[in-house]
Amino acid sequence: MTPTQSRALLDIYFAAFNAGDTSKMESLVAEDLAHDVNQGDRREGKDQFWAFNVHMSRCYKERISDLVLFVNEDGTRAAAEFIVSGTYLETDEGLPPANGQTYRLPAGSFFEIKDGKIARITTYYNLQDWIAQVGGKAED
């Protein structure tokens, strides 16, 4: 893909994220997607990405703003910097209890693009900042 095509793919991905359209997001990733989540294990495959999206949709309502995308010259790698604003809907295992708290934090993602699909997503944010914003501490 050209850098312009890769950029368009990621624009669609982030628009789908903001719309809560996880089916659209899933349509943009490779069957063998490598998905690295912040301070978690790598999830491999589209099915694991689907399970992650189901979990996230149950526990969080999030929106991305202030998105800045960078794509390399051959369109195979990209990086995104953004702000995540959200509401903590349901308690996530090992995290503070949820009661509708809101949060806003900077985050970043890295992407690998192959054959017109997103083949890797690696996301980072400051978990301690998030925990402080929702007014709690992680369970032991």
Describe this structure in words.
This is SnoaL-like domain-containing protein. It holds the Pfam family SnoaL_2. The chain is an alpha+beta fold and 140 residues long. The protein has a single domain (3-133), classed as Nuclear Transport Factor 2, Chain: A (Roll). 31% of the residues lie in helices and 41% in strands. It is built from 4 helices and 6 strands. It has helices at 3-19, 22-27, 46-59, 127-133, and strands at 29-36, 42-44, 60-71, 77-88, 102-114, 117-125. The longest helix is centred in the N-terminal third of the chain and has 17 residues, at 3-19. The protein starts with a helix and ends in a 7-residue tail after the last helix. The relative contact order is 0.19.
Looking at this protein, list some descriptive labels.
single chain; 140 residues; alpha+beta; Nuclear Transport Factor 2, Chain: A; 6-stranded mixed sheet; 4 helices; 31% helix; 41% strand
Q: Give a count of the beta strands, DSSP E runs of length 2 or more.
A: 6
Characterize the largest beta sheet: strand count, sense, and whether it forms a barrel.
6 strands, mixed
- Rg calculated over all Cα atoms: 15 Å
Spatial shape: globular
Pfam families: SnoaL_2
Protein name: SnoaL-like domain-containing protein
Organism: Roseibium aquae
